[in-house]
């Protein structure tokens, strides 16, 4: 059955993307959008009904009561498929964390060219959390001990991964009681693979119990370690001005796009691009310098720390090459499409792989090594500069939008309380009074099977209008950035009156950019502090908050969703449902879906649901927030109650006739 081909307007809401898709059609170049239209998704595999873990299969279970050759039931197969995806996602995040830990160790021992410890305060705070001595010690000595501790978390066999001790006490008790505290990051991933080998764990709920443990080893283990060390080495993010969309590419400069996830190389490329030697080299080639930009989460890493512009999110990687203006795309790990190489062949762009773990057939490979990072970064930039002379006609869209990213946990704490009394108190108070109805974390990927950026931004807009504060990471954050929701006043026209007052008073955009997909761990620590600051219950599941991944596509998104559920959050995933089963299913085939929703809610207070329709995502989010408000005894949300103070009230007053204005400001005379 051939699938209908969509036109660019149906494929994306982003004007720059639309323009490039029209160009791709004109040039006859395929993109993820056109390939998604050409490729009808397999509805058996997509719904988790196919097993191919042994040579007796693959077995497709399409009839009620049917089993695989080995007798495996649909619920066993769905649970096995799901945990394998979660384990792969956890492995990807955690391996990123491991590499960061090795880099920290090298920096501590003076073996990492070009790096330094930028956030000594965070280093000391974390070390003290883990009882590493800090007084009278040099940052490098402390960093060496912290690196050893973090490296040990991956191969640890017994005990618990130590960063999980930063979760609320009640939550840790719950995990202990249920028996899901992760012992070592790698151990849980390996056990997920062992349990799902032919002839092992064959009870869906038992398999999924371990899925929780594996995902917790990611969120409160590998991912949190990655975020901690990125902050120590490259600085904890604080607000900075940036730009997003393909319009950030320049005609007069050598364009280098960095794409992937790990900040170790991209941060060095940022440093190298500002080196006088490289600037002179670019000028000698006839360019005004090197213009760096990012795609996907590498973009988020350097955007939130250095203000380096984001050229786009996941589905814009091929389109950046279609501009004809990119001399080199430098990639490391995760979310890099193999199609980039074929697309680049139609232009002059060089695709340069850099990770020892990732090569792409026919791409150039310049291997990254943290011991010689700056030298390698310069070598890469020189390849790009040498390629400038080969540039042909360019088609750079005009679209680019300003944004203010960089809302780390630490910065929000400072922003709300100041240097001496940093606190989340004003945020908690605003939720308690109802000025802010609740909080939504909107995260995750793009997926060409939905209209690019539409689910992310439609959910964001609707929730903002309902006074829900939104925090975002990953490709979702770039979608909102492009729409202008991350720029103070510019985003406020979409915002409900209570939330608007808070944004105006504190001076924040209504959507807070919190980083890359590995930085979803920041959301966990923010929720923990909201609990600790009081007034919103004594565990994360009591907070009126919801997590959403409206356009998810990666296995990492499934791991993130699962550790958020285990931490107490209601998580809604858009798009496809990997445990959907048969449309006309009965009894057995509903076990996994029911278990990850009702079963997990009973155990952890959080639940995972796959919801296709945007309106349904919004209504379930608001219902959940209101349910949590009621359970805490907070006043029912009333959209008419607030919004009569702050800048908006002053604007109204300014417009009044002089007598009324005076009365509004100073009261009636004699009263
Ligand atoms: Fe089929 Fe069982 Fe082998 Fe899976 S494990 S492919 S269900 S025989
Ligand atoms: S890059 S995992 S598409 S968020 Fe982190 Fe974007 Fe999803 Fe990749």
List the topology elements.
Layout: H1 8-11, H2 15-27, H3 32-38, H4 43-46, E1 50-51, E2 59-60, H5 74-108, H6 120-129, H7 139-155, H8 169-178, H9 185-195, H10 204-234, E3 242-244, E4 254-260, H11 263-273, H12 276-284, E5 290-295, H13 296-306, E6 310-312, H14 317-322, E7 326-331, H15 339-345, E8 350-353, E9 364-365, H16 373-386, E10 401-403, H17 409-417, H18 425-433, E11 438-442, H19 454-465, E12 468-472, H20 474-483, H21 488-491, H22 497-506, E13 511-513, H23 520-533, E14 545-549, H24 555-566, E15 570-573, H25 591-604, E16 607-610, H26 614-632, H27 646-654, H28 658-666
Task: Tell me what you see in this structure.
- With 671 residues, the protein is an alpha/beta fold.
- The chain has 4 domains: 8-60, no CATH class; 74-234, Up-down Bundle (Substrate Binding Domain Of Dnak, Chain:A, Domain 2); 242-390, Rossmann fold (3-Layer(aba) Sandwich), CATH 3.40.50; 405-575 and 612-642, Rossmann fold, CATH 3.40.50.2030.
- 49% of the residues lie in helices and 10% in strands.
- It contains 28 helices and 16 strands.
- The strands form 4 sheets. The chain has a 6-stranded parallel beta sheet with strand order 6-5-4-7-8-9, with helices on both faces.
- Strand 1 (50-51) and strand 2 form a beta hairpin.
- Helix 5 (74-108) packs parallel to helix 10 (204-234) and helix 19 runs parallel beside helix 26.
- It is globular.
- The chain starts with 7 loop residues before the first helix and ends in a 5-residue tail after the last helix.
- The relative contact order is 0.12.
- The model has no long low-confidence stretch (mean pLDDT 94).
- Bound molecules: iron/sulfur cluster and Broken Fe4S4 cluster.
- Broken Fe4S4 cluster binds next to helix 13, helix 20 and helix 24.
């Amino acid at each position: 059955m051939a699938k209908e081909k969509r036109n660019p307007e149906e494929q994306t809401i982003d004007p720059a993307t639309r323009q490039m898709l029209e160009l791709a059609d004109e040039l006859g170049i395929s993109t993820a959008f056109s390939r998604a239209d050409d490729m009808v998704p397999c509805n058996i595999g997509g719904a988790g009904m196919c097993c191919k873990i042994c040579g007796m299969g693959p077995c497709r279970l399409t009839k009620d009561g049917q089993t695989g050759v080995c007798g495996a039931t649909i619920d066993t197969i769905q649970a096995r498929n799901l945990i394998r995806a979660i384990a792969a996602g956890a492995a990807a995040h955690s391996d990123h964390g491991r590499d960061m830990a090795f880099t920290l160790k090298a920096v501590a021992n003076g073996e990492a060219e070009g790096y330094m410890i930028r956030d000594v305060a965070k280093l000391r705070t974390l070390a003290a959390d883990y009882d590493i001595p800090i007084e009278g010690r040099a940052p490098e000595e402390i960093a060496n001990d912290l690196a050893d501790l973090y490296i040990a978390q991956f191969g640890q066999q017994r005990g618990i991964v130590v960063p999980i001790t930063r979760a609320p006490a009640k939550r840790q008790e719950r995990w202990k009681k249920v028996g899901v505290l992760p012992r070592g990051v790698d151990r849980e991933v390996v056990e997920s693979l062992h349990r799902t080998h032919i002839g092992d764990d064959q009870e869906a709920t038992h398999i999924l119990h371990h899925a929780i443990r594996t995902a917790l080893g990611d969120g409160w283990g590998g991912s949190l370690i990655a975020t901690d060390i990125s902050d120590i080495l490259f600085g904890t993010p604080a607000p900075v001005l940036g730009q997003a969309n393909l319009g950030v590419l320049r005609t007069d400069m050598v364009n280098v796009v960095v794409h992937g996830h790990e900040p170790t190389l991209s941060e060095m490329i940022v440093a190298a691009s500002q080196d006088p030697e490289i600037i002179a080299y670019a000028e000698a080639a006839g360019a005004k310098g090197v213009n760096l930009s990012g795609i996907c989460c590498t973009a988020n890493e350097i955007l939130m720390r250095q203000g380096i512009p984001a050229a786009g999110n996941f589905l814009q990687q091929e389109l950046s090459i279609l501009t004809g203006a990119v001399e080199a795309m430098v990639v490391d790990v995760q979310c890099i499409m193999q199609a980039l190489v074929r697309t680049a062949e139609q232009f002059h762009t060089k695709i340069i792989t850099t990770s020892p773990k990732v090569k792409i057939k026919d791409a150039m490979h310049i291997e990254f090594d943290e011991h010689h990072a700056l030298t390698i970064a310069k070598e890469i930039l020189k390849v790009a500069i040498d390629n400038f002379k080969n540039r042909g006609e360019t088609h750079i869209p005009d679209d680019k939008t300003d944004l203010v990213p960089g809302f780390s946990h630490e910065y929000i704490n400072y922003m709300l309380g100041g240097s001496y009394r940093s606190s989340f108190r004003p945020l908690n108070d605003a939720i308690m009074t109802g000025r802010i109805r609740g909080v939504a974390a909107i995260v995750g990927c793009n997926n060409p099977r939905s209209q690019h950026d539409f689910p992310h931004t439609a959910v964001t807009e609707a929730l903002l209008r309902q006074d829900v504060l939104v925090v975002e990471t990953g490709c979702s954050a770039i979608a909102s950035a492009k729409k202008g929701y991350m720029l103070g006043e510019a985003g406020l026209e979409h915002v409900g009156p209570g939330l608007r007052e808070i944004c105006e008073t504190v001076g924040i955009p209504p959507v807070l950019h919190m980083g890359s997909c590995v930085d979803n761990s920041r959301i966990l620590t923010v929720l923990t502090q909201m609990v600790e600051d009081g007034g919103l219950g004594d565990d994360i599941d009591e907070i009126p908050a919801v997590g959403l991944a409206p356009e998810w596509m990666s296995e990492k998104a499934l791991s993130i969703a699962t550790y958020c559920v285990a931490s107490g959050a209601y998580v809604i995933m858009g798009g496809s449902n990997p445990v959907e089963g048969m449309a006309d299913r009965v009894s057995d085939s509903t076990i996994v879906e029911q278990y990850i929703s009702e079963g997990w809610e009973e155990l952890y207070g959080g639940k995972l649901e796959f919801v296709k329709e945007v309106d349904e995502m919004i209504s379930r989010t608001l219902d959940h927030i209101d349910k949590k408000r009621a359970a805490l005894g907070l006043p029912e949300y009333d959209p008419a109650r607030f919004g009569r103070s702050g800048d908006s009230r002053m604007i109204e007053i300014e417009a009044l006739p002089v007598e009324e204005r005076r009365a509004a400001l100073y009261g009636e005379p004699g009263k």
